Amino acid sequence: MALRKVTIEGDEVLRKKCKEITNINDRIKLLADDMIETMKKESGVGLAAPQVGVLRRMFVAEPEPGELYIMINPVITEEEGTQESTEGCLSVPGFIGLVDRPMSVKLEAQDIDGVKHNYEFTGFHAVVMCHELDHLNGILYVDRSKQTMTEEEYEDSLLETDVNEEVDI
Ligand code: NI
Fold first, then answer.
1. 25 CA distance to ligand 1 centroid (A)?
2. Residue 100, pLDDT score
3. Of 24, 54, 74, 95, whose CB count within 10 A is highest?
4. Which residues does the annotation mark as catalytic?
5. For the whole model, what pTM was predicted?
6. Domains, the chain, ranges and CATH?
7. What is the 81 CA–ligand 1 centroid distance (Å)?
């Protein structure tokens, strides 16, 4: 396993649509391992393949410590409700944004063995999955954000309002 370099906004690899993974070979398995290691090292709760420069439909996520997902060819099949999330992104360092996301989603994806699973996520878990899936379509949270601010501005705003703590997804 090895750490991979995280791509930063401005790199065009973050703006392209990723291709399906048709063969979960050793290279893809190594990529998944590296992405998990990189996500943990960077203290993120999610990391998508284009964030390490690979245009394939895969992301890893750990919305709760120890609750790890490898999502291959993920598709959101249903969305319900709305919530306002406070999001950061390892590829957009130093900024925080307020984004409207579904309150819950149904998601279908293959695991690292190619087995298809159907998931249901709500709340913060749903935010993480939507944010990561957007990366596979070349979309960053700043494209959807109603308000984007620097971390300093965000911390100042916390003194005045009661907002959730930010995380990098
Ligand atoms: Ni991100």
1. 25
2. 97
3. 74
4. 132
5. 0.93
6. 12-167 (3.90.45.10)
7. 22
Distance 116 CA to ligand 1 centre (A): 24
CA 139, CA 141: separation in Å to the nearest integer?
7
Distance, CA of 169 to CA of 165 (rounded, Å): 13
Cα-Cα-Cα-Cα dihedral sign, residues 169, 141, 131, 87: positive
Task: Read off the amino acid at residue 12.
Answer: E
Beta-sheet strand order (sheet of 147-150): 147-150, 95-101, 83-88, 167-168
Task: Give the pLDDT band (50/70/90) at residue 164.
Answer: low
Residue 92 has which token pair?
């957009």
Contact 90, 51 (CB under 8 A): yes
pLDDT-derived band at 167 (thresholds 50, 70, 90) equals confident
55 C-alpha vs ligand 1 centroid, how far in Å?
14
